[in-house]
Amino acid sequence: MDFTKEHRFENHEQGTRQRLGVRRLTENLNVAARLWRTAVLGLLLPLLAASALAQVTVKLELQKSRFLPRESMLAKLEIVNFSGQTLVFGEDDHWLQFQIESETGEEITPISDPPPVKGRFTVESSIRATKEVDIAPHYALERAGRYTLTATVHIKQWGKQLIAKPVKFDITNGTVLWQQIFGLPLKKGDPPGQPKQIRRYVLQQAKRLRAMSLYARVDNGLGGKVHRVLPICPMVSFNKPTAQVGPKSNLHVLCQTGAREFNYSVIDPEGKIIKRRHYLIATNRPRLNFKKGQIYVAGGFELTRRDDIPSINKNGEAPKLIVPGNEPKPIPNIQPPLPLPPKRTGN
């Protein structure tokens, strides 16, 4: 073979190998770059998602920290959104879930279904929204002790969830002051005879916000279903309330709330306050009386207030006395006239 041709062939083969090596190196570099970009993106996505989650906060609150067994427990969830996006909640009953644990770590399961929270709403960026749920009817919180309430919020758009800081509360047993079993009135068309349903009114006293308060409980009897537990009014320790069940199975309660003031409330068998009035001691003390098939308050002066049920206060007027016709009117406080100074005579 000619030396020149052989040399040229070797140079061509060597150049081909070099070009192939450069091409393989370029391909390897491109693959490595793609893998690196994928790895970086895989690391950044969780960080971006965590950063977005950090801009959405949830806070759980209770209106107080001490409750009677089965007392209404209003939980308020606050959502603050600074993610730059509009978030949607409430499209189902799973976006907000509650969990209650006892101090021993035992989970308190719902009686039947968890509290219903469905109801679509949106939270725009830089907006604060609240959701209130009464969780007491859905959990059998009967035993006294300390409990922990936790709320989990599911953000469906992101497939993520946020857990609010747990809130602790106490269930305490109040002191029973009075109780009465009664039958519900017969409905139209029911045959005469014994009432079909039996219920019980119970008056209890317990501390609320560092003061003694009076509560009413409506249930089906000892160990039966609890329909409602509700606060009636603050009370003094030196005078026990009086109570009577009226002909329509409503509970009438008269309770002294201060040195001279009384609260009169009427509660129906469902545990709803249908009437509230306030009285002041006059020449005699307010008391429950029965006349012509009705229970009413005799004695004292009626005082209108803004929390009357139903309200009889018009246009936000200041509280005033309503003096019954059979009660002596209060003696007005009239100051004696001041004597005029003697006239000065000239010299």
Comma- or semicolon-separated keywords:
347 residues; mainly beta; Immunoglobulin-like; 6-stranded antiparallel β-sheet; 23 strands; extended
Describe the structure.
By secondary structure, the protein is mainly beta. The protein folds into two domains: 56-171, Immunoglobulin-like (Sandwich); 175-186 and 195-322, no CATH class. Helix content is 15%, strand content 40%. Strands 2, 5, 6, 9, 10 and 11 form a six-stranded mixed β-sheet that branches. A six-stranded antiparallel β-sheet has the order 16-17-18-19-22-23, with no helix packed on it. The protein is extended and about 120 Å long. The relative contact order is 0.09.
Brief overview:
The chain is mainly β and 347 residues long. Helices cover 15% and strands 40% of the residues.
Q: In terms of topology, how is this protein built?
A:
Layout: H1 3-54, E1 56-62, E2 66-67, E3 74-81, E4 87-89, E5 96-102, E6 107-108, E7 121-123, E8 127-134, E9 145-155, E10 160-163, E11 167-171, E12 175-183, E13 198-208, E14 211-219, E15 226-234, E16 242-245, E17 251-256, E18 261-267, E19 273-280, E20 287-291, E21 294-298, E22 301-303, E23 321-322
Parallel strand pairs: 2-11
Antiparallel strand pairs: 1-3, 3-8, 4-7, 5-6, 5-9, 9-10, 9-11, 12-13, 13-14, 14-15, 16-17, 17-18, 18-19, 19-22, 20-21, 22-23
Poorly predicted regions? 1-7, 321-334
Please state the CA-atom Rg, rounded to the nearest Å: 37 Å
How many domains? The number is: 2
Molecular shape? extended
Largest sheet composition? 6 strands, mixed
Number of strands: 23
SS element count, helices = 1
- N-to-C SSE series? HEEEEEEEEEEEEEEEEEEEEEEE
- The secondary-structure class comes to mainly beta
Strand content: 35-45%
Give the averaged pLDDT, no decimals: 81
How far from one another are the termini? 163 Å
What fraction, in percent, of the residue positions are helical? 10-25%
